[in-house]
Amino acid sequence: MRFAIVIPVICTLAAPLPASSQRAPTTRLLDRIPPIFGSGPNQPGLVIPSTPVMPGLTAVADHAKPGDAVGFDLGGFRLGMSEAQVDAVVRTRHMTPGIITRGVDFESSVRSLINTRGGAGGEETHRGVLSEANVEDDAGGRYTLRMLTWPDGAHLYDIVYVAAQGTAAAEWRRMLVGKWGRPRTDDGGSDLTARWGATTPAGFRATVRLGSDGGTILLQAPEGSAERPYALVAQAADAFFSTRARKPAL
Known about the structure:
Radius of gyration: 21 Å
Strand order of the largest sheet: 1-4-5-6-7-11-10-9-8
Helix content: 10-25%
Order of helices and strands: EHEEHEHEEEHEEEEH
Oligomer: single chain
Strand content: 25-35%
Shape: elongated
Largest sheet: 9 strands, antiparallel
Number of helices: 5
């Protein structure tokens, strides 16, 4: 079960802002996350678990191997990136933000679950973290970037790229083989239909269907990855109840 609340926000960049309130578009959309989960004076304390270090989910792989999708670069984005790292890519490449969806932070999810289970978890902080971002590059391609919320913030776990028309399959093949190595499978047709990475949904994988009419590139984390942070939410809620439970005297 997911506990995050998502709020869609539509980016409009046409109307200029007053100088006193102008901010870079992506900074305005991808607000920074406070580094410490603080509890207010009237908030019950929580034990927030540490974020496990998992390349491709909570951290960028420290090296890229040909054919291993966990370390693939797609337009500057890599699985496991933090919200700040995603923001930096968008700004550096001068991408145009579209619809941005934000969700509640990890602490709020824990407090909400405690309250749902009948405990006194306190008020949600309502600090927003990035849940999904849609951005466009200068070639007309569109990225959908999906994040998961962990104790230390949001991390990128799924990338969908929708390519614009006009690039031949042979050119796509040259670019991707140069970046990622030879694919695990390649149908060899007039369009590029190829797969890199794991042979099953249990691993990191890339799926490509591209031709002169455009197409898609999918870079995905293992199936079931989205459930991992919610298991940590439940763990934190369980710890809350455990510390407050009255011990039976037998």
